[in-house]
Amino acid sequence: MSQRNTGVTVQAVNAQACPVREVLDRVSGKWSVQILVAAAHGPIRFTELERGIEGISRRMLTLTLRNLERDGLVTRTVHATVPPKVEYELTPVALELHETLQRLTDWAERNRVHIAESRAAYDAAHDEEQG
Length: 131
Prior knowledge:
With 131 residues, the protein is mostly helical. The protein has five helices and three strands; from the N terminus they run ααβααββα.
């Protein structure tokens, strides 16, 4: 801790950041983001999500959907048909989050060349220092 910032403790920072970190961990998870993107255009069935999200297991999809539902980001609707039809839809809060994710994606696209060039320059400079 610097001498100038003695009023802030690690415990105080962690206590304040903990609830935010918990939310960010949930909504920024690999599977959560893909589900939010897939469901952004309206109700979507479990099987459509399963087919559309490469690499996700049925169990992981179920767990992630359950957590997103618990957090109030998706609604689950069971239609009384045979076999039962289950649809998932983003809540207004999740639609707002999707807009934010879209802005982040746009930012990443606009800046990816700059970031790649910066990485290459950094790596070249540090390779010279170590070599």
